[in-house]
Write a structure and sequence with these properties.
The chain is α/β, with parallel strands linked by helices. Helix content is 49%, strand content 16%. Strands 3-2-1-4-7-6-8-5 form an eight-stranded mixed beta sheet, with helices on both faces. Helix 6 runs antiparallel to helix 7 and helix 7 runs antiparallel to helix 8. The radius of gyration is 22 Å and the shape is globular.
Amino acid sequence: MGTGEPLLSASIIVRDEADFLRSCLASITEVCDEIVVVDTGSVDESVEVAREFGAVTDVRPWDGDFAAARNRALDMCTGEWILYIDADEQLEMANVQAARAELRARTDAVALRLWFRSRPIFSPYREFRLWRHRADVRFHGRIHETMVPDLRRISDGEGLVIGTTDAFRLTHYGYEGDQTRKHRRNLPMLEQRVVEFPERCYLWNHLGNVKLGLGDAEGARAAWSSGISLMRTRGLADRTDVLCYAGLGLHLIDLGIDVRDLVTEARTLAPWYRTIHWVAAVNHRRQRRYSEAIPELQALIDIGIDVIDDALAYNNDMFTHWAWDALADCRASLKRQAVDVSA
């Protein structure tokens, strides 16, 4: 827009992520005019690392509110556009000048959904991480904080589009390794959040994953079941709602329970959900229905890796060696069954 302001500000909150942060900042220094880092109580060298890279820094003691910390960082930014990035993420830039030129050219857009990989081995999806810097775009929610309602309101009210870009590609690395510390941090916030917003299935799914990760299987089943009950009442409100079916289905299969009906229900509600092929295949194998598992596994192989989705990430292993290994096992099992019958 030619305001004379910096074109792009990176907005980051951090706590005890010095090692991750160094790689993150190295990945964005060339494309960003300004880096803002708000520390929420690090005892490591996170703040020092941020300053090494010329970041504008502030310290805001952690109070269990992600949105408040992120909004503090937004308040400090001065760029025309915001890049929202976490310390355990890295930007993959093929052409910095082309990316910056795209931001300058998109005067029609309030936001650009970029290419995002939530884990290194997962397929990408579209994520809200780039938007025009405005005082009326702020985060809401203590956990799973979001600015999307503000962006949609502006888009609907002012005719500014929410577009996409492939010039900015972001990869998240923080889900690797032991997640116990994060689970313990997130549990009380999620328990409060599902009380405040019980209609968000994504919260129920995350709560189920956290509870299972902390050894509370009964609590995990209850959380996933709450999300599924909600979908049975009102249908899908968001593409990510269906995650509850995979969480509950795979857990019940581990207990030896046949989840054929649950798979059918999920497939009727969301036939596009690729993980349902895997849940169905795992269930058929557990119940020794190998011939029924084979087409599910073949469907996964036919999909292939890195098919970009609008909102969901998929483990690429599901389309490759998981499926091939399971397919080989199913065919071998069918041969054994045939030998047993003929013997």
